[in-house]
C-alpha cells in the first residue's frame, strides 16, 4: 500500500517534470505572452551629501535578534554628515507612536530636528502618522531605494 502511494507521488512528480520540459522546449511562446508587472529599472540616483551635521539622518531597524528583556530589534539613527550613530532597543511589533517617542528621545531631544530623514520603505516609515508628523515638523522624508526622489 505504502509503495503504491510512493509510486503515485513519483508519477505525479515526473508528469510535472514532463510538463515543465514541454514548456521549456517552447520558450518563445511563454515569453511572447508573458505580462510584465515590474517597474522598469532606472538610473541610480545617489542621495545628496549634506552640508552640515544633523541636517540629514538615516533611520532603520535591525531585526531578527533573539528576544532579550522584551526586545528583539534595534532602532538605528545615523547622521549622514558626521556618521554619529545612536542605537535603541525596541520590538519589531512596536506601534509607530512608541517608535516616534523613542526616536525623539534618542535623537531629536539631543540634536534637534533635522531637515531630511532617509529611511527604507518599512510600513512604519510610510504610515500616515509618520508622514503627517514629519510634514508638520517641516522635515522632508526620502526613501533609500533606486527610485527615491
Describe the model.
The structure is a single chain. This protein is of the alpha/beta class and 149 residues long. It folds into 2 domains: 2-33; 56-143, Nucleotidyltransferase, domain 5. The protein has 5 helices and 5 strands. The chain has a 5-stranded mixed beta sheet, with helices on one face. Strand 2 and strand 3 form a beta hairpin. Mean pLDDT is 77; it is low at 5-10.
Brief summary:
By secondary structure, this protein is an alpha/beta fold. Helices cover 41% and strands 19% of the residues. A five-stranded mixed sheet has the order 3-2-1-4-5, with helices on one face.
Fold blueprint:
Layout: H1 2-25, H2 27-33, E1 56-62, E2 73-79, E3 85-90, H3 96-111, E4 116-119, H4 123-126, H5 128-137, E5 140-143
Parallel strand pairs: 1-4, 4-5
Antiparallel strand pairs: 1-2, 2-3
Biggest sheet: strand arrangement: 3-2-1-4-5
SSE ordering: HHEEEHEHHE
CATH level 3 topology of the largest domain: Nucleotidyltransferase, domain 5
- Which segments are poorly predicted (pLDDT under 50) over 5 or more consecutive residues? 5-10
Average pLDDT taken over every residue: 77
Main sheet overview: 5 strands, mixed
Assign an overall shape: globular
Strand content: 15-25%
The Rg value, from CA coordinates, equals 24 Å
The total strand number stands at 5
Give the helix tally: 5
Class of secondary structure makeup: alpha/beta
Query: N- to C-terminal separation?
Result: 63 Å
Instruction: Tell me the name of the CATH homologous superfamily of the largest domain.
Output: Ribonuclease H-like superfamily/Ribonuclease H
Q: Roughly how much helix do the residues carry, as a percent range?
A: 40-55%
Any idea how many domains? 2
CATH class of the largest domain: Alpha Beta
Q: In the CATH classification, which architecture of the largest domain applies?
A: 2-Layer Sandwich
